[in-house]
Amino acid sequence: MTYQTLDTLRFDNRFILDLPADPETENYCRQVRRACYSHVKPTKVSQPQLIAYTREVADILNLTSEECELPDFVQVFSGNRLLEGMTPYATCYGGHQFGHWAGQLGDGRAINLGEVINQQGKRWALQLKGAGQTPYSRRADGLAVLRSSVREFLCSEAMYHLGIPTTRALSLILTGEKVVRDMFYDGNPKLELGAIVCRVAPSFTRFGSFQIFTARGETDVLQQLMDYTIRTDFSHLGEPSPEVYLAWFQEVCQRTAELIVHWTRVGFVHGVMNTDNMSILGLTIDYGPYGWLDDYAPNWTPNTTDAEGRRYCFDKQSHIAHWNLVQLAQTVYPLIKQTEPLQSILDSYAKEFECGWRKMMVQKLGLNTFKPATDEALVTELLAILQLVETDMTIFYRRLALIDAEVGSFSDMNEATFMEPIMDAYYQPEQLTSNDVMRIENWICSYIERVRQDGISNETRRMRMNSVNPNYVLRNYMAQLAIDKAEQGDNSMINELLELLRYPYDEQLEKREYAVKRPEWARHRAGCSMLSCSS
Ligand code: AMP
Ligand code: MG
């Protein structure tokens, strides 16, 4: 492969060539009708400074690391310099926020630079998040602060390395500007450091990108966006037609189900699953007040705005994804005009998710396949024992892999043999009552028996389990420590975490300080346990 320089990147920008534009080119807030996007330029920034970049994302754009370290790179990905072929724009979309139709939202602080076609012929859209106001900014400033940009940058890449579909992050750049934020919406605004992340994805199209046109009765524009989407991102489905629209909807449902299964596997909570934050490619998109389960608490949400209703808590994510897919079905109905096939695809989502979830759960346990006769009960009881006392989800599954299932008979074993490997997962082990311990031991016995039924050796089981149960996830407190340092001008931890999270399933013994439970000080600290939408 020959590498490109910034100046030789090839842009094809089909999104803007094929889809209707907002004829207005002045940059002021407005309702934009009958258009998929508005032309808008990134706002220039005073002192852009590169904090971090990812060599993997540079690589998919055919850029070398050296290219990313040139002064020009910072100018381009802070929005100060447009490359030949870049035609910046903000897209129009709508969405349901917390269950209510919110009307036009759009890229209020994201500016797309264009789509690169790499040497393998793959399309990658580049988008700056926090690059200034657009016609969709409503009353906000179009900017992003360092803390939320660090979180987006690190988590995008952490997800990728965990094997989870996601938008990517190429760069994290300080702008040199100050941004006012009232982090807790409590009347205490502060000046924070401004930053820009360059996000990269095959497409940033959301459920809400379609919804806005149906809501406004602009069915012809809806159809244009749909046909464009099928031709560019779903070309394997064939030329657009009502049958292909249905096949498309089915694939969106399937990808969404797979995504939520992945999130469930690693304990990720998105935090704001509004329909404008749902990617039609089934990617994790829009990293806001997301979080990772430390202790296994299915009703946990990191989002303070959602603390009361818990609409987007961990174990409701599949249900909410389905709700969002129902909105998408209603959106595409005018192009299909048949309720029944849409309904039956929606119904199959639940089956799809259930099936994927079962498969994932037995993989987490290192078993061959899900056997309903035994595994229904095994998994149900597992999720119950994880909630007896505060139990760290990530550590529990890693330690479970250490349980010796090749022991002789159970009578040879004492309590220590059963419990010892997993003790590390308990936040306050003294809270375990003797009943709890008995219940956990019983479960471990059934588990060992089940492993033996499948005839899997300890070694094979450990290898399998450790390839789906991460040793390292971006715990909320870890991101917060990296942010605290970066706000003081020390970016070392951002790069340290980026490196750590490249190999989330490995032991990385020299980094084991990060493979531990959330420290006690982080329990109630802002950014470590709860987050607001302010970003
Ligand atoms: P989010 O909750 O981040 O998914 O954002 C919801 C909507 O608000 C999207 O249309 C965003 O573009 C917009 N938005 C969020 N923050 C800002 C901001 N600082 N400036 C302008 N628009 C924003
Ligand atoms: Mg969003």
Low-confidence stretches are none
Mean pLDDT: 96
Number of helices: 17
Q: Please state roughly what percent of the residues sit in beta strands, choosing from under 5%, 5-15%, 15-25%, 25-35%, 35-45% or over 45%.
A: 5-15%
**Helix vs. strand class:** alpha+beta
Instruction: List bound small molecules.
Output: adenosine monophosphate, magnesium ion
The neighbouring-strand order within the major sheet is 2-8-9-7-6
Order of helices and strands: HEEHHHEEEEEHEEHHHEEHHHHHHHHH
Integer count of domains? 4
Main sheet overview: 5 strands, antiparallel
Rg estimate, integer Å = 24 Å
- Assign an overall shape: globular
Describe the structure.
The protein is an alpha+beta fold. It has helices spanning 14-18, 55-60, 65-68, 71-77, 146-162, 207-215, 219-233, 242-266, 317-336, 339-364, 372-385, 393-400, 415-419, 434-454, 458-466, 476-487, 492-500; strands at 37-39, 49-53, 89-91, 94-97, 100-104, 110-117, 123-129, 168-181, 190-201, 268-269, 291-292. The chain folds into four domains: 6-204, no CATH class; 209-364, no CATH class; 367-455, no CATH class; 476-522, no CATH class. A five-stranded antiparallel β-sheet has the order 2-8-9-7-6. Strand 8 and strand 9 (190-201) form a beta hairpin. The longest helix has 26 residues, at 339-364. The radius of gyration is 24 Å and the shape is globular. The model has no long low-confidence stretch (mean pLDDT 96). Residues 105-109, 136-137, 140-143, 272, 276-277, 286, 288, 533 line the site of adenosine monophosphate (AMP).
